[in-house]
Specification:
The complex is a heterodimer of chains A (about 450) and B (about 100). By secondary structure, chain A is an alpha+beta fold. Chain A has 14 helices and 20 strands. Chain A is globular and about 65 Å long. Chain B has about 100 residues and is mostly beta strands. In chain B, about 10% of the residues lie in helices and about 30% in strands. Classes of the chains: A alpha+beta (about 450), B mainly beta (about 100).
Chain lengths: ~450, ~100
């Protein structure tokens, strides 16, 4: 219909490029005035249509608007489960609650926009070459879910298997790499220690000469590692959860959590109170503020972590390269930008401002690894908040307040664990029992002294 | 770039200091319960606002100092005792830092 109208308009207008543009402009305005409201921000009412080659051709031919990926709802007075935090963890928990357990009366509330926190600020690196057997099993399940996520969600998340290299610049690093490789192999994860000539084959632009300040002595090579488009993961989960009936409430800030006789009864928000028997805290950097509202104290400290990205260039770097000694990790996105990350800032803060010291240090370290990048320009830098735990492992599961669940302490490794955390938290909430895969990550491990020390594999190795 | 007020050297660039964490009172090891000891070791307030902290001025006076810092704006000012304006003398109280005794 729209096409025909526009052609008719064109036919009536005088020939010439200027007139044709004007005619198109008129057609655009009239079409949007009576269209499906996409550009006017009106939420659609029915569940999302399936993305496919056929729908792409259909939309290409009709130039019709795509339906909104998720709807907006009024805040209901009660839900079965309220999930605080609309990042990859919160949305994945909501999605697996609905898909695996049939619990669809779920709300995800976020004080900002979906994926505006750590989910949109990480460097999108995926891997499972951790140090403890608990960690390796956990992150490997996540990688498995990520591998099939595009088909599961009917959303292109641009998963790209690149191979992941953790460089060793001294004997103690090399020893840790060998240790990690053996732990990984015992868990069926593909990892091996390779020598500098093999590193050079995988990353030709890397300076592997022995005359530099930190010569490369070897590397832990993890072929299944890779990168993904982090925004697409958030949007994919949001769209899929919405299609299953989950309510997504953006700009909805939790201001209090109601606890009566040791039980959660609901949350207070800036859009009114919500009663719910189960509240899940998935707020990463801000998690202690939410846990405090329920009276649950956690061993979490919030540190900023900065990252930066260069101008796009032709693809030259296939693998993800990490150097713990130089505190830097590098990958090239599908768009050609180089994404750099580092370790967390040296002191706690809720500030997300970048610093000059970071860029100076980062540039120096990157050039130690790849001197040929000296003419590249950084486009931007940013910071995200990391909720660090003492043992670099997360805190997951129920707390002493009945119905209040934690999915926090994600530090610098939260994004790569998104799917498995959602799956495990959904199971914990639905079955009221702690799944085996997260049984080592309970809050009570700190009182028992049973820490899961992941610092050797998680501190800088992203 | 933020500056910290060192009571001995004046305001200095934060890069001169090492962060030693929130001030956490140490319970008496002889009488503390495992839970109290757990709290002392691991639990921190992690507030979004003013917090008292211990810093080590490694490239300056090499003393441990206390600073009150706002964790959102990173504004810092000397920590003061309640009811007075005198700087806190960290050598007479426990700073909570695990290696606080080393530089006295």
């Amino acid at each position: 219909m729209v096409c025909v109208t526009r052609k008719a308009d064109l036919g009536r207008s005088a020939p010439g490029p200027v007139d044709r543009r004007e005619a198109y402009g008129v057609a655009e305005i009239s079409r949007n005035g009576t269209g499906n409201g996409h550009r006017r921000g009106i939420g659609r009412t029915k569940a999302s249509s399936r993305y496919s080659a056929l729908s792409l051709i259909r939309h290409g031919l009709t130039r019709g608007d795509w339906p909104r990926a998720w709807r907006e709802h009024d805040v209901a007075s009660s839900y079965d489960v309220v999930i605080v935090g609309g990042g990859v963890h919160g949305l994945a928990t909501a999605y697996y609650l609905a898909r695996n357990h049939g619990i669809t009366n779920v709300a995800v509330v976020d004080k900002g926009y979906l994926g505006g926190g750590g989910s949109g600020r990480n460097t999108a690196i995926l891997r499972s070459n951790y140090l403890t057997p608990e960690g390796v099993r956990f992150y490997d399940r996540s990688l498995e879910l990520y591998r099939h996520l595009a088909a599961d969600l009917n959303f292109n998340v641009m998963f790209s298997r690149r191979g992941h290299l953790t460089l060793a610049h001294n004997d103690s690093s090399l020893r840790t790499m060998r240790w990690r490789a053996e732990v990984n192999k015992c868990q069926g994860v593909d990892s091996e220690v390779i020598d500098p000539s093999q590193v050079k084959e995988l990353v030709p632009y890397l300076d592997t000469s022995q005359s530099v300040r930190y010569p490369v002595l070897g590397a832990l090579y993890h072929p299944p590692g890779g990168i993904i488009r982090h925004d697409a993961v958030v949007w994919g989960y949001a769209r899929a959860a919405d299609a299953l009936g989950v309510h997504l409430h953006q700009r909805t800030e939790v201001t209090g959590i109601d606890v009566q006789a040791g039980r959660v009864t609901g949350v207070q928000t800036n859009r009114g109170p919500i009663s719910a028997p189960i509240v899940v805290n998935c707020t990463a950097g801000w998690s202690t503020l939410i846990s405090d509202m329920a009276g649950v104290r956690t061993p979490v400290q919030t540190f900023p972590l900065q990252a930066a990205v260069t101008e796009p260039v032709r693809p030259f770097l296939h693998a993800v390269v990490v150097s713990g000694t130089l505190h830097v990790y590098v990958s090239q996105t599908d768009r050609g930008e180089l994404v750099f990350g580092a370790s967390v800032d040296p002191f706690t803060s809720y500030s997300m401002r970048g610093s000059l010291e970071f860029v100076e240090g980062l540039a120096g370290h990157v050039l130690e690894l790849m001197p040929s990048l000296s003419k590249m320009r950084l486009l931007r830098q940013w910071a995200g908040l990391c909720d660090m735990t003492p043992d670099y492992s997360p805190i997951m599961g129920e707390t002493q307040v009945e119905g209040f669940y934690l999915d926090v302490g994600w530090g610098t490794y939260g994004f790569k664990a998104g799917p498995v955390s959602g799956e495990a938290m959904a199971e914990a909430v639905a079955t009221r029992a702690t799944p085996e895969i997260i049984s080592a990550f309970g809050l009570d491990r700190f009182a028992r002294g049973e820490l899961v020390g992941e610092k050797g594999a998680a501190a800088v190795g992203h | 770039m933020i500056q910290l007020p060192c009571p001995w050297c004046g305001p200095r660039n934060v890069a001169e200091f090492r962060y030693s964490g929130e001030v956490t009172p140490r319970p008496d090891p002889a009488t503390a319960t495992p839970e109290q000891w757990r709290d002392y070791l691991y639990i921190r307030r992690n507030p979004s606002g003013w917090v008292d902290e211990t810093w080590y001025h490694g490239t300056g006076c090499r003393r441990f100092i206390r600073v009150s810092r706002h964790t959102v704006s990173n504004e810092a000012r000397p920590a003061v005792r309640t009811g007075t304006t005198a700087p806190v003398d960290v050598t007479s109280t426990d700073s909570g830092a695990p290696d606080a005794g080393g530089a006295r």
